[in-house]
Amino acid sequence: METMPDAAGTVRLLPQYFGVLPQYRCRGFGRALWRAAMLWGHEHGAVYQILQTAVGGASDCLCAAEGLSSLGVVQQAGALASGS
What are the DSSP calls for 21-49, one per residue? Predict the structure, then answer.
């Protein structure tokens, strides 16, 4: 985990990447990891963090359950084509 000032000098928490294997989901592990990361960021001066999730995916659902709001949705043409 790391913090870094943005262009305006505001400290942000850089994305942390973690996942929970499907067979272990819905047991609170993702939420515990998320909250630990947010606490770490807060303790290290982070004011915000920007996250990316797959719409409707496990991480998207966790973010919504934690009260986070979406800044928008972006679809990449390459991602759609790779699913074919």
Answer: -GGGTTSSHHHHHHHHHHHHHHHTT--B-
Pick the CATH number of 3-82 from 2.40.30.10, 3.40.630.30, 3.40.50.2300, 2.60.120.10: 3.40.630.30
Given the structure tokens 């606490």, which residue do they identify? Answer: 39
Which residues of the chain register pLDDT less than 70?
Answer: 78-84
- Report pLDDT for 78: 64
CB 48, CB 16: distance < 8 Å: no
Give me the pLDDT at residue 4, please.
95
Burial 12-38, CB ≥16 within 10 A → b, else e: bbeebeeebeeeeeeeeebeeebeebe
pLDDT value at position 54? 84
- pTM, 2 dp: 0.74
